[in-house]
Design goal:
Elements: E1 8-14, E2 19-22, E3 28-41, E4 48-60, H1 61-70, E5 76-89, E6 95-108, E7 129-130
């Protein structure tokens, strides 16, 4: 296959306020996790069952600045991007891996829940927001870490 597709889309709720850091160039980077839940009725017990998956997100540049202003813990959001796995070493020198979604498109969803409301006096953009390419990309060395 000439072109593969690396596209992830999620709707979920922020587990905490976005964490903002800055690259040496001054470009902002936002890290956060969202909870994506599914529920169903257990056929054996008749009870409602639920499972939650936590998804790690990374955003750069103007997208990171926007979510810092308008997103907070509990906000329901739509995100789209590409999955990346990074390799790093812990303090003991052991190789560790982290899988995250490099987000390039977001939308704040209105759901009417109190903890998903924006701070007083601020209104999040109603339509989606797409990251413009910043020229920063992670090297793709073709090495699969597993």
């Amino acid at each position: 296959m000439a072109n593969d597709l690396n596209l992830c889309q999620f709707i979920g709720r922020l587990g905490a306020d976005p964490e903002i850091r800055f690259l040496p160039s001054g470009e902002p980077v936002a890290n956060m996790r969202i909870a994506c839940s599914e529920s169903w009725k257990n056929k054996q017990t008749g009870q409602k069952d639920e499972r939650t998956e936590w998804v790690s997100l990374v955003m750069f540049g103007s997208l990171a600045s926007m979510v810092e202003k308008f997103w907070q813990k509990g906000t329901q959001v739509y995100v789209a991007g590409k999955m990346r796995t990074r390799k790093w070493s812990d303090q003991q020198g052991n190789d560790r891996y982290s899988t995250e979604v490099i987000v390039n498109q977001v939308q704040t969803l209105k759901d009417g829940r109190q903890n998903g409301q924006q701070p007083q006096g601020q209104q999040a953009p109603q339509q989606g927001y797409q990251q413009q390419p910043s020229g920063m990309d992670f090297p793709d060395d073709g090495e699969i870490p597993f």
